[in-house]
Amino acid sequence: MDKRTLLPGLLILFAWLTACSGHQWNNPYVAEDTEKNILYTVFTERPKHLDPVQSYSSNEIQFTAQIYEPPLQYHYLKRPFVLIPATAEEIPVVKYRDVHGNQLPGDAQPDDIAYSVYEITIKAGIHFQPHPAFARDAQGHWLYHDLNRQEMASVRKLADFSQTGTRELVAEDYVYQIKRLAHPKLHSPIYGLMADYIAGLREYADVLKQADQNRPEEKTFLDLRDYQLEGVQVVDRYTYRITIKGKYPQFVYWLAMPFFAPIPWEADRFYSQQGLKQKNITLDWYPVGTGPYMLTENDPNSRMVLEKNPNFHDEYYPAEGMPGDEENDLLVDAGKKLPFIDKIIFTREKESIPRWNKFLQGYYDASGIGSDSFDQAVQLVGQGEATVTEAMAEQGIRLETAVAASTYYMGFNMLDPVVGGRNERERESARKLRQAISIAVDYEEFISIFANGRGMPAQSPIPPGIAGYREGEEGVNPVVYDWVNGEPKRKSIQAAKALLAEAGYPDGMDQRTGAPLILYFDVTARSAEDRSRLDWMRKQFQKLNIQLVVRSTDYNRFQDKIRKGNAQIFEWGWNADYPDAENFLFLLYGPQRKVGNSGENAANYLNAEYDRLFEQMKNMEDGPQRQQIIDRMIEILRLDAPWLWGYHPKDYGLYHAWYQNVKPNRISNNNLKYFKIDTALRTQKRAEWNEPVIWPVALILAVLAVSFVPAVNAFRRHESSTAVRATSSDTTG
Amino acid sequence: MLSYIIRRIFYAIPILIGVNLITFMLFFVVNTPDDMARMQLGIKYVTPEAIEKWKAERGYDKPLLFNQEAENLDKLTSTIFFEKSVSMFIFDFGKADDGRDIAQEIKSRMLPSLAIALPVFVLGLVVYITCALLMVFFRATYIDFLGVVSCVALMSISSLFYIIVGQFLISKLWHWVPISGYETGLDAAKFLFLPVIIGVISSAGSNIRWYRTIFLEEMNKEYVRTARAKGLSERIVLFRHVLGNALIPILTGAVVVVPLLFLGSLLVESFFGIPGLGSYTIDAINSQDFAIVRAMVFLGSLLYIIGLVLTDISYTWVDPRIHLA
C-alpha cells in the first residue's frame, strides 16, 4: 500500500471494524457486556473495611449491605421506615426479666427491668455464597483450611481457589459474629456502645484478650466457638437469644445493620492463615455472606464487582407501598423474585468531571449532582419545585429527591463563658444571645445559595421521616419563626436585636464594657467556595452588629478543639444510624458531652429536665405518650438554642430512563436487589449518544499536511543549498 | 566503576535516613497518632479505649523520637521513628493502616503507573527531540518562530487545562476514547491513548525549548562546521553529529527520571481513573496513612538516587572519555 494511503486506510478499517462490532469507541466496558443485565455505578472513596464487624461508613456499607444479611431489614417502599424480617422468621418480640431472671410483663417499668431478651429464629434453608472456605474433599476434609507453603505460593487472589462449597445458615453464625464485636484484633466501632448493653460483652473481650495472648504463635486461629458469651446464646439450630442489660428498645434497629450479620466460623478459620493475610486475602476484603450479591472482583483502587449469589434464598419484591408508588411504577414488579440485576460494576471515579460526562454518555446508570453541574441538570419550577432541565428530559433522565435522615447544624459550646455562660445570670444572657443569632442566620437563604435549594430548614434536631418529627404549625420553632398564612416565616431582625439587647449586647456592644461583641467560629473550611460561605456567615452576624471571627484549621486540630471544649461556635452534622428520634436527641444528652465524657454531645449541652426526659423517652415504645415527651424535649431545646438547627439536606439523584424501581432513602442500604435495568433501551441510547465524530480526524490530517508542505519544501531547498549559505545562517540561530 | 557504585550506595544511606527523618517530622507535626487512629476508626462512637488499642497494636503508643522511660539504647530504638524506619531498609514496608500489605499494593499498582509514564516518557523524548531538531534545522525561519511561540503558549497553560479540554474534545464531543478508566492487557490501549497524548503535550513546551537550546549551542561548535565542510548533508550533521554530542545534557535530564516512572503521576491518574502509585500516594495523604506515605517517600528517594547513579553510568556509555572511579 502506498504510504500516503496507509493512514487513512487504517482509520477507515478501524472505523469499519468498530461499526461491525456495534461497540462505541468511547465505551469503557468490554464489548461482550454490552447487552448484559449489569448495573454500572461508581464509588469515589476506596473502602477501608468490608468486614461487617468493622465497616461503618457509607462507602463501605454500599458493598457490605448487598452481601451480608442481618436478621432484619427495612421495608423498601413504606415510610416512615418499617422493620421487616430479612433472614428472621419474624420481628423478635422482646421479653423483660428482673434481676432474678423472672419474666416481667410487657408494660413493666424500666427501673424493674434488669434484662431485655430478644429471641430470633432464622429461616431454614438459607445458604452461604459459594466460597473456598466451605470446600471439602470426598472424605469431608477441609480443602483449604491448612494450606502448605507450596499451595499458598500458587494463590494470588481468592478466585485462584478452584473449589468452592457452601453451607446452610444457622443461628451459630449470628452468635459468632456478635462475639467478634469483642475480638481483640478487630476494631468494631460499636463495641463500646454494645458493651454497655449486651450482657457480658465487656467481660468477654477480656477473656478473648487473655486467650489471644496465651495462644501459641503458630496457631493463628482464635476459635470463638470455644468461648461462651453470657448475653448471646444459641438456642437451637435456627434460634439464638440476645440478652440486653436493662431496656433498650432501639436495639432492634441495630439488628438491621451488617454488624449483626452472620459470619461462618469456617471463613474466619480460612482467612486466619498467615500466608493469605500477607497476600491481602482477608475477611476484611473478601466477604462471605448469604445476601443477594457476592463480591467477585475486589480492586478498591479501580473497580469492585458484585455478582448475583447463586445460593440466594427466595425473596420477593414488596407487594404494597405508599400512596403514589403504584403511579410511579414502583409496584410493577410486586411479588417477583429478587434480585433483578445479574451484576453490579462499581468503578472508582475520584473526579466529578469524568463521572458526570460518563453518566451523560449512558455509561453510568445514575448520578448525583455536583454544584458545578447543578444548573445543567436541574431547574426550579412553580413553587420552587425541582425538576430536570429540558436537555436532561430529552435524554429521558429523571430526578428523584428525598430529604436525608441527616442534620447539619451550627453548635455553640455551652462551656464557653460568652455563648454558654458560667453562672445563672450569664447563662440567661447567653441563651438570649443564641436565640438572637438563631433568628439572624437565615438558613432559607443559605440553602438557596450554597445548597442549590437542596435542603429544608431544620426546626429541631429531628429530620422528617423519623418517628418524633412533627409537621406543620406544631413542628415549627416558635423562637425563630412565626406561623403566617399557613407557612413558617422567619422572625424579623428587629426581634433578634431586641433579644440581643436583653442579652446585654444592645446593637452588638457589650453594655458592661462598651466593647463590640466578637464571636469566634471554628471551621475546617479552606476552599474558595468555603470562603464565600464564611463571608455570608459573617454578614449574618453583622445584621446584629456582631463581629464573627473565623478560625480556620485542619480537621485534626478542629476535632481536638471540640474534644477539649476550646471551640466557641462550630459546624457539625449527623447521619441517622436508625430512624428513631433517640438517635438525634442523644446528641444533646448531658452524659454524652464531649468534654469529660468523650460522647457525641459536641455542644456540651446540659439540662437536667432534658436529660431526665431523654432517659424516660429512650426506654419507651413509639406512641402518643412518647411523642408528648419528645415534644417537651424539643421545646426545651428550642428555648435553650444550643444549636442553630441548620438544615436537613435533600438528596438529589439523576436516573436514566432504563433504571427502574428506584425509591431513594438513606436509612436502608440493601436496595440494589430491588433495582431493574432495561438493557435493550440502554444499548440503543448508548449507540445513539456516542456515535464517533470522524471529521476532526480529516481536519487534523489536513492541517498537518498544509503545515508540512512548506516545511518539506524548505527542507528540500535547504538540502540543495550551497554550503556558504548554510553556514551564514548559523550566525542567526 | 564498581567501587564508584559501592561508594554511591554508602552515600545513599545517610540521605535516605535524612529523608525518612524529615518525612517523619513533617508528618507528625501535622498529625498525631491519635488523629491517625480517629481517621481509621471513624468519627462515630469512638472511645478513648479504642484509640489506645489501635495505637498499641500498630506501635504508635510509643514516643516519637526519644523514649525517656527506656534504658540505654532502647531510648532510641523503642520509638516510633526507629521501629517504623528500620524495616524499610530491608524493603519491609509493613501494612497500611487499613491492614493491607503495602508491598503487595505497590506491586499491583506499579504496572498501571508504568503503562502511562513509560509511553509518555518514550514518546515524549522522541517528539521533543525531533521537534527541537526540526526547529534548529529551520532556525531563523517562520517554522522556528512559530515553534517557539507554540512552546511558550504550551508552557503557559496548566496541565489540568489540557486534561479537561482533552477529555471534553476527544471523549465527550468526538467520542473517540473513554473519558476515564483502566483495563489490563491490550484493552488498556483505548484508556491510555488520551492520557498519554495529554502527558506528552502538557510537557512539550518546556522540553522542546530546552532541547532546542542544547542543540543550538552545539550547532555553533567547530565540529559542526568541520562536518559541513566535509560536505555532509544538514540532516546527517544534525541527527548524527549534533544529536550524538548533545546526549550528555539530554541524559542528565532524562535518565534520572527513568526510575521515577514507577511512581506515576498524581494528577493524570486521578482524572483518568488509573489505579497507579500516584493516586495511591494521594489517597494515603488524604487518609493520614503514615505507613504508606513514608514507604512512598522512601521509595521515591531511593529511585531518585538510583536515577542519579544511572545517569553517571550513562555518561560513560555516550562519552568514552568519561571514567567513573
Automatic annotation (TrEMBL), chain A:
Entry-linked PROSITE patterns: PROKAR_LIPOPROTEIN (PS51257)
Main location: other
Keyword Transport listed: yes
SUPFAM superfamilies: Periplasmic binding protein-like II
Keywords annotated in UniProt: Membrane, Signal, Transmembrane, Transmembrane helix, Transport
One cellular component (GO) term of this entry: cell envelope
Bilayer-crossing regions: 693-715
GO biological process: peptide transport
Domain Solute-binding protein family: 167-593
Family: Belongs to the bacterial solute-binding protein 5 family.
Entry-linked PANTHER family: PERIPLASMIC BINDING COMPONENT OF ABC TRANSPORTER, PERIPLASMIC OLIGOPEPTIDE-BINDING PROTEIN-RELATED
Name of the featured protein: ABC-type transport system, substrate-binding protein
Annotated organism of origin: Nitrosomonas oligotropha
UniProtKB/TrEMBL annotation, chain B:
Subcellular location: Cell membrane
Pfam families for the chain: BPD_transp_1, BPD_transp_1_N
A Gene Ontology BP annotation from the UniProt entry: transmembrane transport
Gene3D superfamilies according to UniProt: MetI-like
Major location category of this protein: membrane
SUPFAM superfamilies: MetI-like
Keyword Kinase among UniProt keywords: no
Source domain of life: Bacteria
GO cellular component: plasma membrane
Transport found in the keyword field: yes
Alphabetized InterPro entries for the sequence: BPD_transp_1_N, MetI-like, MetI-like_sf
TM ranges: 9-30, 116-138, 145-171, 191-211, 242-272, 292-318
Topology class, membrane: Multi-pass membrane protein
UniProt record similarity statement: Belongs to the binding-protein-dependent transport system permease family.
Record protein name field: Peptide/nickel transport system permease protein
Organism this protein belongs to: Nitrosomonas oligotropha
